[in-house]
Design brief:
Layout (H helix, E strand, L loop, with lengths): L1 E4 L4 H12 L4 E5 L11 E5 L6 H7 L4 E4 L8 H15 L3 E7 L9 H15 L3 E7 L3 H11 L1 E4 L5 E2 L4 H13 L7 E5 L5 E2 H12 L4 E4 L2 H7 L7 H15 L9 H6 L6 H7 L6 E12 L2 E12 L3 E5 L6 H8 L7 E6 L2 E2 L5 H6 L1 E5 L10 H5 L1 H5 L4 H14 L4 H4 L9 H13 L5 E5 L7 H18 L2 E6 L2 H7 L2 E6 L2 E6 L1 H6 L4 H8 L5
């Protein structure tokens, strides 16, 4: 039988959820049983960290026990020891203990010393054990940064391999479900990278849109700044030593133990922000997107984030994957691996009709319906959206004027009566009249003469500036890319070689391919 302590806390409650999802019976132990979530598969028992007949009775029948460390206090080690004595009397065999990364009685982080003493006592009593030495939680740094607009502490440029709290919970659940595999092991639970406080606040600022700073205090300044929170001296010591331990390097060092247990890499800071829906909304994000056919990889592990309102140009030679990328946005093609997100939601989770009505599409082959007038071609999407005739007429006239084709002169014309440049202007109006979130443009001007192409480039840029639609523009013309793009993504053989602003592409190309691709342009 599995026993789980701390079920009213964040870590323990998540472990309880995971075990319940597997349909496994368990015993939940809580100081305040009335606060514990009720599961059909679990029995709730009252317990405290002590050795009393009541606690011994509560622990009876448990074989494998997740012991979430007691709340921080000066008597915590004694509480742990008393509780472990009770567990021994109750016949518990295997203790899965949430310890701390680098647990040592001489550790800089003062609370780490409690964990070292607890680990030693578990071994002394002869329990089978699994020690989960998790590092500081990434969630902790996220929370204090977003709450206070800063991270403040004497960490200097030290680095920490902080871990996601949910990763620790998932590891704990996996071990409870398969305890034999992890007997008498110490697992170091870290994130996928060592990261400094400066890097944390830089990433949080960029990804959440909040201005967050890091204040590198001296030890004296750290104690002084924390006096605004009434506390005991041991608490101030713990708070400050969180950062001094990072500064001296005791919390650095990446382990693969999370991946060893879960079969996938540890969660990053960005993963947590995404999971908690804290990311600044990006209109489009490609995350590890691939498209593979039997004999060919069309796209290979594409990662790209396109900001809300950005004009992103995809440029590269024929067959590089440009058109494939935009066809995936409105699900004309489906990736064989990875996901594409729009406004934080997976593209494949959208209703296809809803998705396509929220996306404007301008093709090289203009594809106006030859049997419909200009006005009738433009009205197709608004009619699907249920607009009134008056709304459609008013908006059609407004947009035709903006693209230099007055409605009085052009609305009743047939496509065959228009030049190529005029047809493409109508194609643009048809794509934007429904006020789409995203405008996809697939080499829309490549078949036009130089004068028409230049005019339509200027028109497209002006419309983007006015309406602010997120625009993804495909071209093989590097001059066009440099002229239009807020940023440019350069593709070759299904992979992105560089994503940067036009000036950076010219001044600091990432590869020889990028340099050669843009080196042949006049850039005027």
């Amino acid at each position: 039988m599995i026993g789980i302590t701390g079920v009213t806390g964040k870590l323990g409650s998540y472990v309880a959820d995971l075990v319940d999802q597997q349909g496994i019976s368990s015993i939940h132990l809580a100081r305040s049983p009335e606060r514990a979530k009720v599961y059909a598969s679990a029995e709730i028992r009252k317990m405290v960290y002590a050795n009393t007949p009541e606690v011994v009775e509560a622990l009876k029948g448990i074989d494998v026990l997740l012991m979430v460390s007691a709340r921080e206090n000066p008597e915590r080690v004694e509480e742990h020891k008393s509780f472990l004595d009770a567990a021994k009397l109750a016949g518990v065999q295997h203790i899965v203990y949430t310890s701390f990364y680098g647990a040592d009685e001489k550790a800089t982080f003062t609370l780490s010393r409690d964990h070292a003493q607890t680990e030693a006592y578990i071994k002394e009593l002869g329990f089978t054990y699994t020690f989960l030495r998790d590092n500081f939680y990434l969630d902790f740094f996220i929370d204090i940064a977003l709450e206070n607009g800063e991270i403040r502490g004497p960490a200097g440029r030290g680095r920490v391999s902080a871990v996601a709290r949910k990763d620790t919970s998932r590891v704990a659940a996996e071990i409870l479900l398969n305890p034999k595999e992890w007997e008498n092991q110490t697992l170091n639970l870290t994130g996928p990278e060592d990261i400094s406080m400066e890097e944390i606040v830089e990433l949080l600022s960029k990804e959440t849109g909040n201005a967050i700073t890091y204040v590198d205090e001296s030890v004296e300044e750290a104690y002084e700044s924390r006096k605004k929170w009434p506390a005991q001296n041991w608490e101030y010591d713990a708070w400050v030593s969180t950062y001094t331990a990072i500064k001296v390097g005791e919390q650095a060092g990446v382990s693969t133990d999370v991946e060893k247990v879960l079969g996938r890499p540890a969660s990053s800071l960005l993963d947590i922000l995404r999971d908690r829906n804290l990311l600044r909304k990006n209109m489009i994000e490609y995350k590890h997107v691939a498209l593979c056919y039997t004999d060919k990889n069309i796209l290979k592990d594409v990662n790209l984030r396109i900001e809300n309102g950005e004009f992103m140009v995809l440029v590269g030679p024929s067959g590089s994957g440009k058109t494939t990328m935009i066809k995936m946005i409105n699900r004309l093609l489906e990736p064989t691996d990875g996901n594409i997100y729009m406004d934080g939601k997976r593209i494949k989770d959208y209703d296809e009709r809803e998705l396509r009505l929220s996306t404007g599409y301008v093709l090289q082959a203009i594809a106006l319906f030859p049997n419909l007038t200009v006005a009738e071609n433009i009205a197709l999407i608004p009619e699907m959206k249920g607009w009134s005739k008056e709304q459609i007429t008013s908006k059609t006239e407004e947009l035709l004027d903006k693209v230099g084709l007055p409605a009085a002169e052009y609305a009743k014309r047939m496509p065959s009566e228009l030049s190529g440049g005029e047809q493409q202007r109508i194609g643009i109006v048809r794509a934007i009249i429904g006020e789409p979130k995203i405008l996809l443009m697939d080499e829309p001007f490549s078949a036009l003469d130089a004068i028409s192409r230049k005019q339509l480039q200027e028109l497209t840029k002006a419309l983007h500036k006015e309406f602010g639609m997120t625009t993804i523009f495909v071209t093989h013309d590097t001059d066009e890319a440099l002229k239009l793009g807020d940023r440019i993504a350069v593709l070759q053989d299904g992979e992105i070689r560089q994503v940067a602003e036009p000036e950076t592409i010219l001044e600091a190309p990432a590869t020889d391919f990028v340099a050669n691709l843009f080196g042949g342009s006049l850039h005027v």
